[in-house]
Amino acid sequence: MSNQTTLQKAIEIVTKATEEDKNGNFEEALKLYQHGVEYFLHAIKYEAQSERSKATIREKCMQYLERAEKLKQHVSGQAQPKKPVKEGGSTDNKSEDDKENNKFKDQLSSAIVVEKPNVKWSDVAGLDQAKEALKEAVILPTKFPHLFKGKRKPWRGILLYGPPGTGKSYLAKAVATEADNSTFLSISSSDLVSKWLGESEKLVKNLFQMARDNKPSIIFIDEIDSLVSSRSDNESEAARRIKTEFLVQMQGVGVDNDGVLVLGATNIPWVLDSAIRRRFERRIYIPLPEAPARESLFRLHMGDTKNNLTPADFRTLGQMTDRYSGADVGIAVRDALMEPVRKVQQATHFVRSRGPSPEDPEVIADDLLTPCSPAMPNALEMSWLDVPGDKLLEPVVDMKDMKKALHSTRPTVNDEDLSKLQEFTDQFGMEG
C-alpha cells in the first residue's frame, strides 16, 4: 500500500468515526477511532515521512486516542461522553475553535520576517517600472496616506512574473527592507498546504487574518502557480477549496483589506486561474537582464575574490552572456571561482612566489608556493599534499577561467518559455 493510500484511508476512517460520534453511535465510533489510529501509525512506521509530517500525525493520533479513551469509559458505563470531536480533533465549543486558530497562527508565525533583509532599491539593477509600481503600492501609501483617499486606492495585488532567476524574490526582499513599518509575511505554497481535511483553507484564512491584524502588511507568496493554478474537472476537492478560500480572502468580502498587499511571484503565469489573475491588479514582467545589468551582476558575484579582470573584461562578459538570467550569471561565476582550487588540486609543479600571507593578508611573505607549469624556471615537482597549509599562494581568477566557466554553464531559459512569457505580457501584463 502506498504512503498516500495509507494516509487517505486513515483520514476516511476517522472522518467516518467523527460522524458516528456525532450521531451518538459511540461503540462504532470507538472502533473506527482505534482502527484509524492503526493506519496512521502504519504510515509513521513503515512509510517514508518527513519529520514534520510524522509530528503532525502523532499529534492527530493523540487527539483521536484521547477521544477513544473517553468513549471507552462511556461504553463501559464509567462516564458520559462530552461533545464529539470534529475532523481535526477539536470540539464544537468556541474556546476549542480559538485554540485551533491559535495553532494555525503559531504554524504560520514562522513565515514572518523578523529581521528585514538588507536589500535596497539601489541594489536591484534595472527593473525601474517594477520598482515604481512597488513604491506606489507599499511605500507611498504609508508615507503619504492623505494621497490615497476617496477613489485613489493603492494596489492590493501585484504579480511578478518572468523567467527563473531574474530577481523576483530579490525584489520582494527590497520591498521588505524599504517598507520599514510594514509586516512582511513570506510564504511558500508548502506553508499553506496540509494533508488534513479542511486545514489548508484555515491556514489561508488565518494568514490573511494575521496580515490584517498587523497591517500595514505584505503577503509574499513565491511560486504561487503551485497554489492557484487553473481549475479543472480532474483536480481534487481539496485543491478547489484552497483556491476558493484564496479568492474570497483576496477579494475581501465582508473584511477590511485596506493596508494589505498580496505580492505573488511565478515563472509560469499562464497556468494561473483567471479569477486569481484578475485579483492581481498589476502584473509586471521581470525580464532577463540586459548586457549592462549582466556586467554589474558579474562584478557583484565576483565580490572581493582575488582576480585580474579589467573593466573591459567585465563589459565583454556582459556582452557574451545573452539570454543568461541573474542566477545563470551567479552559477557561472561560482564555477569560475573554483578554477584556482582545481589548479591547486591538479598541479604537478609549484614555484616559490611573493605575496600576501594566507594567515595575515597585511603581511607580504617571500616563501609562498603557487601552482605553475613544469616548464617554468625554478619549478618544483610536488603535489598540493606537499604544500604546507600556510604557504599556499592562491591563484587569481582570470579571463581564461571566466570563459571556461561560461563554456560549461549554459542559459537555463529556452525560446519557448520566453515566447510564452511575451505572449502573456502582450495580453495581460506590463514590462518591468
Short summary:
The chain is α/β, with parallel strands linked by helices and 432 residues long. It has 15 helices and nine strands.
Describe the protein in words.
- This protein is α/β, with parallel strands linked by helices and 432 residues long.
- The chain has three domains: 3-92, Phosphotransferase system, lactose/cellobiose-type IIA subunit (Methane Monooxygenase Hydroxylase, Chain G, domain 1, Up-down Bundle); 121-288 and 426-431, 3-Layer(aba) Sandwich (Rossmann fold), CATH 3.40.50.300; 291-408, Orthogonal Bundle (Helicase, Ruva Protein, domain 3).
- The chain is 49% helix and 11% strand.
- It contains 15 helices and nine strands.
- Strand 6 and strand 7 (364-372) form a beta hairpin.
- Helix 7 (199-213) packs parallel to helix 8 (237-251).
- The longest helix has 25 residues, at 51-75.
- The two termini are 49 Å apart.
- Mean pLDDT is 80; it is low at 85-94.
Q: Tags for this entry?
A:
about 425 residues; alpha/beta; Rossmann fold; Helicase, Ruva Protein, domain 3; 6-stranded parallel beta sheet; 15 helices; 9 strands; about 10% strand
Give me the secondary-structure topology.
Blueprint: H1 3-22, H2 26-46, H3 51-75, H4 94-109, H5 128-143, E1 157-161, H6 168-178, E2 183-188, H7 199-213, E3 217-222, H8 237-251, E4 260-266, H9 274-279, E5 282-285, H10 291-302, H11 311-320, H12 326-337, H13 339-346, E6 349-356, E7 364-372, E8 380-381, H14 399-408, H15 415-428, E9 430-431
Parallel strand pairs: 1-4, 1-5, 2-3, 3-4, 5-9
Antiparallel strand pairs: 6-7, 6-8
Helix pairs in contact: 1-2, 2-3, 4-7, 7-8, 10-11, 10-12, 12-14
